[in-house]
Specification:
The chain has 503 residues and is mainly alpha-helical. 67% of the residues lie in helices and 0% in strands. The chain contains 26 helices and no strands. The chain is globular. Its main location: mitochondrion.
């Protein structure tokens, strides 16, 4: 049998359905007596954050210096790296643990490996890895991880087929796998299937937990079924097995505000505050700050900001929430002041923070300020990413500066990163502009070649043009698309809430 699959001991499947698989294994904070106590393997790995850095080289060096690494140390490192979205590095450590150190891996380790491979190398490689797992190790943890991978990539047919197999194996005895599928149905707006699965849970005696109810709340909110949402909240309030914590109130508040029911939304936000405690305070305050901004309660936004600052260290995510909220409220001076504070105090550069400023300036037509921000962080040795240049290109397009838009979009495509997609409206306008230039065809061909080399299809771009090309309409549509995409920054906080609450 491949050394990769030698079983060490069974572990429980820890909340895989939304974000995490493993339990925390300590030990990597310690170091040998002859070394500097501050020089830990955790610190070395933590500092090597650039994607091109080799984790194997760091681990090998650690051993060459006569230090030890326990399996629990390595499992702790994998968890730490996953927590900070360093999936590529986490996969390197996971593979090094079994391939180089010859450690026996548990079903939990295998489940984590499936998740990491799907994130880093895609589903095809993940399935190839799964097919190499011996049948006797394909228990609930491994099948649960596979289901979560399919659901994360929104592969509905494969997820449903696997769910059917798990029914046959008798694995569907808890809420975990059900919640994974319920979340997928919600994301794909398959509300009928979601309701059918909820009925199956009731028929099989599977109790709805707070995650099940959270998905239901979101489903009601997304379909504007406020009455259904309120009935569910009432049932939850009298259910002794459920607690109405801040996650629930925030979810309800989000949908009330989206439906224009401001007072009801604010009531939910206010009810949430007394339930906030412990380690969740930062994420809770960030979420409430965003909701108060949506309700245009500027004083409450600043109150939440002060609560965040009173917690001690202010994280990049908090600055991101505050600056984007102030920009949305047209509090430009306040946003600029907070941004300067971030510049002076930041320990780790996060390009999303200046990107929020650049996006807002481009939407409002303040292109000189947007350009100045780009120049500023380039001068400080930081690289603009694809989103930076894409936003600038859209700003130029919306303000009729097409030559500059072309150059900025070229830089965006060259700075391409996994998961990034260009603003298709801006691209459509660029192609139309290039068609009209003196050197007919050449500039457009060069641009299309660049797109193709970077893996972007031009078909959807031409679809945007249609038969009735209207420059004025495209200007507005480009800005609208930018605004929709930028709301994902705020949406990240709600996704963090889900992940945090499931750990």
């Amino acid at each position: 049998m491949d050394k990769l699959f030698r079983l060490r001991r069974p572990n429980s499947w820890c909340r895989l359905g939304v974000s995490k698989v493993s339990t925390f294994c300590g030990g990597f904070y310690t170091s040998t007596s002859h070394s500097d106590p501050a020089d830990t393997i955790y610190r070395r790995i933590s500092k090597a954050g650039h994607p091109t850095n080799s984790m194997a080289a760091i681990l090998d060096q650690w051993l060459e210096q006569g230090r030890d690494l326990k399996q629990s140390d390595l499992q702790g490192l994998v968890k730490m790296l996953r927590r900070y979205n360093r999936s590529g590095h986490a996969l390197q450590v996971s593979e090094w643990m079994s391939d180089q150190r010859n450690h026996q891996v548990s079903p939990g380790d295998i489940a984590i490996r499936l998740d990491l491979i799907s994130r880093v190398r895609g589903l095809e490689q993940m399935e190839k890895y799964f097919n190499g797992i011996p049948d006797d190790l394909r228990g609930l943890q491994v099948y649960g991880a596979l289901l979560n991978c399919y659901a994360s990539h929104k592969y509905l047919e494969k997820a449903e087929a696997l769910m059917l197999k798990m029914r046959e194996f008798g694995f569907l005895k808890t809420t975990l796998s059900y919640n994974v599928m319920l979340k997928l149905y919600f994301q794909l707006r398959k509300i009928d299937k979601l309701d059918m699965l909820l009925q199956e849970m009731e028929q099989n005696g599977i109790k709805h937990d707070k995650f099940t109810c959270s998905i239901q709340l979101n489903a009601y909110g997304a379909t504007a079924d406020i009455e259904g949402m309120e009935k569910l909240l009432s049932r939850m309030a009298v259910n002794p097995d459920l607690t109405l914590d801040w996650h629930v109130y925030v979810t309800a508040a989000k949908w009330y505000l989206k439906a224009g029911l401001i007072e009801k939304g604010l009531t939910m936000v206010r009810k949430s505050e007394p339930t906030i405690s412990g380690k969740s305070k930062r994420i809770a305050y960030e979420s409430l700050l965003t909701l108060y901004a949506n309700a245009r309660e500027i004083d409450e936004v600043y109150r939440m900001w002060n609560l965040l600052k009173n917690l001690g260290k202010v994280y990049n995510s908090s600055y991101l929430c505050m600056i984007s909220s102030l920009m949305r409220l047209d509090e430009i001076n306040g946003a600029e002041r907070i941004f300067k504070e971030w510049e002076s105090e930041q320990q780790f550069f996060d390009v999303r923070v200046p990107n929020v400023m650049i996006s807002a300036y481009c939407r409002k037509g303040h292109l000189e300020k947007a350009e100045a921000y780009v120049d500023r962080f380039v001068e400080r040795g930081n690289d603009p990413d694809a989103t930076t240049w894409d936003r600038l290109a859209t700003g130029y397009h919306a303000n009729g500066q097409m030559a500059k838009s072309v150059e900025a979009m070229k830089k965006a495509i060259l700075a391409d990163r996994p998961g990034w997609k260009p603003n298709t409206i801006t691209l459509a306008a660029i192609l139309e502009y290039l068609k009209q230039q003196d050197d007919v065809g050449a500039a457009e061909e060069e641009f299309l070649k660049l797109l193709q080399e970077r893996g972007h299809s031009s078909t959807s771009i031409y679809d945007k043009l249609g038969s009735n090309f209207n420059k004025e309409t495209l200007h507005f549509e480009a800005i609208d698309q930018m605004e929709r995409e930028d709301t994902l920054v705020d949406g990240e906080m709600h996704e963090i809430i889900k992940n945090e609450s499931s750990s």
